[in-house]
Amino acid sequence: MVSSPKTNQKLPIICEVYQKVDEDGNSKFKAMSRKGIYAAISYMFCAVLLIMFNKAALSSYKFPYVNVITLLQLICSCIFLYIMRQWNIISFTKDVSLRTVDNPIILVPFNTLVQTLPLALSYLLFMLVSMESVRGISVPMYTTLRRTTVAFTMVVEYLVSRQKHSLLVVGSVGIIILGAFVAGARDLSFDFYSYGVVLLSNLCTAIYLTSIARLGKSSGLNSFGLMWCNGIICGPILLLSTFLQGDLQKLISFPHLSSPGFQAVMLLSCVMAFFLNYTVFWNTALNSALTQTICGNLKDVFTIGLGWLLFGGLPFDLFNILGQGIGFLGSCFYAYCKLKGK
């Protein structure tokens, strides 16, 4: 079914990027619009809730099958997108006035699907590593280490597009990293594997966001179209992987499978994953990838508070509080430098 050009979309699909690049390759930004504020707040809200639900499933209920959670999230996402696409609530293209030749099975041209293959694979890697990184580390320390993602993003951007940043921006990133190390100085529960997985998750995040910036512009698809391609490409791969590993068979014997609380957590995790994916694309397209990174740092404040309240973790000590404060100030300074074009 092809959407009519006159169809009014009920969900926001914004493709304008509020970013300018000068002759030296430095980014400058306009003031954030009201819609941009809504997008940023929506992303932070969904991200905090998703981390809490994933943590509850993996830690509180001791659910050991990370791939199954990711697979269920992809399946739910594809179901939501398919229904909304068939009901003409959404379109998969940036320009809703363009009529695309839909494949009756994949709903997008096959060439377009192939073009988004690198983005889909980077998304799958990002999702799997991110889920695993939550398991063996406290929520406060997880969010602290995740703040170093901005450094990974800067490196990947330079390697891919040779984008350079000012000394002030580099200095603000250094402050964020310093805060992360200070906060972790008293972490007696240091786990090399868990910390390594979180840092690998940071690298996957940088690759994923860079892929959005590069392939999202050339594919002709909007946020929903990219999410759909991610799902139909990654879904079969992940399904085969979970089957070969025996996770689907072992899932039947999971002791909390019939628990209403566990089922509610899993359902909410799938719903939040869908909205998080959408708000990532929406916030990135409307406000720029930089604002998306800044929002990722700012939402950590709420994640830390809820993590300590619901799951516990690191004790309140001087080093941890000082490190959290340094990292937050570094994030604010980073936002100030970029928003002012410095």
From TrEMBL:
One of the GO BP terms on file: nucleotide-sugar transmembrane transport
Position of the signal peptide: none
Keywords for the protein's UniProt record, in alphabetical order: Membrane, Transmembrane, Transmembrane helix
A GO-annotated cellular component: Golgi apparatus
Domain Sugar phosphate transporter intervals: 37-334
One Gene Ontology molecular-function label: antiporter activity
Membrane topology: Multi-pass membrane protein
Transmembrane annotation, as ranges: 36-53, 65-84, 105-129, 141-160, 167-186, 192-212, 224-244, 264-282
Compartments where located: Membrane
Main location: membrane
Protein name: UDP-N-acetylglucosamine transporter UGNT1 isoform X2
Native organism: Spinacia oleracea
Gene responsible for this protein: LOC110792259
